[in-house]
Amino acid sequence: MVKVAAKTSDAARLEALGATEAEAQFRGHTIRVPLNLEVWPLSLVRERPFDAVDYLLNGQGCGLGDNATVDDYRELSDAMAEAVGVLRLPETPAAPDQWFGGIPTLVNILDHYEDDLVSDLRRFWGVDYAERFRGTLSLRQIWTYIRRLDPKSAIVRAQNGGKEFWTEQMFILASVYQALTGEIYPGRPLRQHEIAKALEAMQAKVDHVANLKAREAAYAAKSSPTAPAVSAMEQAIANRRHELGKR
Fold it and tell me: From which domain of life does this come (predicted)?
């Protein structure tokens, strides 16, 4: 008899017991999906999530009719991710392009930061990433390790452009240093709001210079006669001299 994960909280327990499927609850319907993420269509999850939902449904009824919206399918995808224990973190802001809970984040790390993942698993938890390929380390387990990464982890540093990620405590200590010494702490990065403020100030300066140039050009145009006006003036002066010469 096939063992089935009945709810999200059962995912870890039934995984250990050899469960092969999880049951996603969606608007009164029960939908079975593979418990092991290794057999999921992760490329579809990454690139075409709508198709991934259809693939995982595999003909099962889910209560969505012809009038179903993209939001309906996205909600279903989150229910599927929840069933296998890879939920989006509660502090993660909702966005229209977020599907399948935390699975896209996990897949992105696997695709782009696998070496850093190997390092972090070993460093922080003493876990050998190679166990994944021996079948003794599931992607769900990996997610539980990395869903909230230590600020000093290799993955966090890689995602930060290779630079150290500054925590709130580090910014506070840097502020204390600046208050005591009158100097900015060496290597202190700008925060997002500081970057925005600096860019705003730079843009204001650019706009001010452009405005001064425009005013200068307008003033020059008004104070200096145009080429035709200069010619007319010269002709008038020449005519006047000619008249004076006749006297």
Answer: Bacteria
